[in-house]
Amino acid sequence: QVQFVESGGGLVQPGGSLRLSCAASGFTFSGYTMSWHRQAPGKERELVATISRFGGSTTYADSMKGRFTISRDNVKKMVYLQMNSLKPEDTAVYYCNARGLGPYWGQGTQVTVSS
Asked: Whole-angstrom Cα distance, residue 6 to residue 45?
């Protein structure tokens, strides 16, 4: 079955960095654009970044451009999100997903940016 297992979140001070990881299984990983999403308390889930099937193209939400970097490893079936210059408003639960695969979501990983 389709599974996403996110990890790497934690508590970090403003200006700090974190690297999130997502292990995917149950589908042909290299056949899908992958994405990261986040959901802050009381808010809708929002798209953070996407990466094309072989990593040649990436997109970012405006507020993440220049701070976040998405990458993938098709051999390991992993997708990553390097987050730098973190701000308190980046506090959220972060999820990965395969674009167009369906409404499959993992448990997410909590990122808290606070001093």
From this structure: 16
Q: What percent of the chain has pLDDT over 70?
A: 100
Beta-sheet strand order (sheet of 3-7): 3-7, 18-25, 78-83, 68-73
Among 65, 93, 92, smallest CA distance to 4 is for 93
Q: Return the closest-CA partner of residue 97 out of 22, 40, 15.
A: 22
- In the predicted model, is pLDDT for residue 102 greater than 90? no
Contact criterion met (CB below 8 Å) for 36 and 49: yes
Please give the mean pLDDT across all residues of the chain. 97
Distance, in Å, from the CA atom of 36 to the CA atom of 92, rounded to the nearest integer, reads 12
